[in-house]
């Protein structure tokens, strides 16, 4: 008998407590950020004030020196006139007439020069005094910044401790990929309220040369509400990881796999091939590679979803039905498609489109792998504009609009988003890969558990 996790409500509350703890940490980190920003803004303001006063003093001195230079030019002109008078023989008259005036002007300029010199000395003394006071203020502010950072360092672990304790409770309920044990398959806790898939690395750059971080599990609500897909030329470990998470997290005997692998002919899940011998897990007991058999499998899933929606799931969904029908629960059907759209017929694409639109409610999870060559095929199909190929394009549209991409980015969108808004902390999603040398052991455990169920 398969049971829904009796701790479901408590488990969901635990998830909320984790996010609340993260929000609390983010609030404290944001307060530290604001405090430091205010201190550094004050330091910058004082620096600008020093620079501005120094600039004003220099401009004032330059203006006075420029005026003095103009007066010196005038005196030079007067002196030249005196020289001209002497050469013409009437210098005595000129000198007696202008000499006293000329001497007064010379004296006046000398006094002005001395005044400017004195003023220059006073202004520079004031500037040095102002600079010294500013340096003291800046030093005090810099010390305040260090104090804030030091207090943060002392208190941050205390802030994170409740979060760590909550994450520990999560790990007890469901293990991560690197910590799977046989017992996790033998003693399932029923249908889980979430699946651990990867983790979030929370980052906070509080100090120039030190970065604080914490890791929390990435929890996806289960049953999933959107199909998964991946695009690219890299390996298929993300899909393999998701498959492992499902096989370990869901009760033994609940998962059914339909595997479509037309290009690699089974090699896309090479490490999982021993599972093909378990009919209860893989009813076809093989990976489907031929267009006719692929179309037939998609038709069967299409008919299955149509039947469930018209009978057992008229006014409910897969999870609620299983909650009230524990003796005869519906299986969770995982549809793995590699190298879409290769070998997918127009009819097959029509069935797949309907499965994407309606299958999630029936407990059907499509996981689709698309290569760069597949994207090129889609482009060629789109350029032909053949109405018969519309369903192939509709599948891509549904994945782009409603699907969950397994990679970090896809066309500048997609990837996993942190479920809470963060102001100071940065949340970076990190895929967790299973240990390659442990995979044969994991697969053996799964095969033995399903074979004996």
Descriptive notes:
- Helix 1 runs antiparallel to helix 2, helix 5 packs parallel to helix 7 and helix 7 (346-358) packs parallel to helix 9 (390-402).
- This protein has 2 domains: 28-162, Helix Hairpins, CATH 1.10.287; 183-452, P-loop containing nucleotide triphosphate hydrolases (Rossmann fold, 3-Layer(aba) Sandwich).
- The chain contains 10 helices and 8 strands.
- It is elongated.
- It is of the alpha/beta class and 453 residues long.
Tally the structural domains. Answer: 2
CATH architecture of the largest domain: 3-Layer(aba) Sandwich
- Helices, by number, come to 10
What is the strand tally?
8
Write the layout of secondary structure elements.
Elements: H1 8-88, H2 91-173, H3 183-186, E1 194-207, E2 210-221, E3 228-231, H4 237-249, E4 255-260, H5 291-310, H6 318-324, E5 332-337, H7 346-358, E6 364-370, H8 372-384, H9 390-402, E7 404-405, E8 426-430, H10 439-452
Parallel strand pairs: 3-6, 3-7, 4-5, 5-6
Antiparallel strand pairs: 1-2, 1-8
Helix pairs in contact: 1-2, 5-7, 7-9
